Structures
1.
Amino acid sequence: MQFIETFNLTALLDTFVSLLGAFLLGTLIGVERQYRQRSAGLRTNVLVAVGAAAFVDLALLIAGTDGAARVISYVVSGVGFLGAGVIMKDGGNVRGLNTAATLWASAAVGACAGADRLAEAGLVTVFILAGNTLLHPLVNAINRLPIDEGGSEANYEVRVLAETHLAPEIRERITDVLKQAKYPVADIKMEPGTDDRTEIVATLVSTTVDAQELNAAAGAVRRLAGVRRVSWEVSTLDS
């Protein structure tokens, strides 16, 4: 039997230490994720870390360091697909990016443990926990700062409520007005409103905007026949 020929108690103990290290470190990461009620919590992060450690350890036993290096590259891409499963788009917002990144980092912890680099695995774990905890207050503070429309790249939408029977003509005029104001339109669509009103939504080409200039352009649109209301809004772009 191949098992009898290949069995090595020392190697088995080495594998046990690697998997145990991945399990414990993955647990530390997962506890923080579970506490924050993320979609990928304790068990997911532990499984990712242990799985990555098992693949790398097995490759190290069978094919040596060259084989382990190849497997690590496959782990990186494979966990990337797994992380994509927790990313969700909700309208203009994208959720789950941090959770996906944490899973990816958990795989790095497991790969370090599987390659018998437990000290490095522990160090990576410390930085992951620091990123998810110590930086959280800083993120909240930045998010509370007002958006500087003149200095930040963002997504701008001009919303126009118009009389339905004039909506197609107004749509063309909106494009012309914004183009003259040097704010070209990337996309423009009409959405059904109430009664005889239609909402026209013009999304500007990604750029920086001067609020006064855009207000002036919105005023020009407001003066078009059949226009009842004009507003514009801004949201930061995901990067």
Note: Helices lie at 2-6, 9-35, 42-84, 97-114, 118-133, 136-143, 167-180, 211-222.
2.
Amino acid sequence: MDARLLDILVCPICKANLEYRKAEAELVCKPCRLAFPIRDGIPIMLQDEARPFSAAEV
């Protein structure tokens, strides 16, 4: 994932900063508790494609 892209991407729902999780290939929004997938190097920033996660995963 390009570091410059990570600097400008925010959550499409709440506009919070995202955390990049390389091992899972996801961008995580902690306030929304959603993980947006990265497929073939492209972040999929659609709410319908996001995976909800529990507080234990934070």
Note: DSSP finds one helix and five strands in the chain.
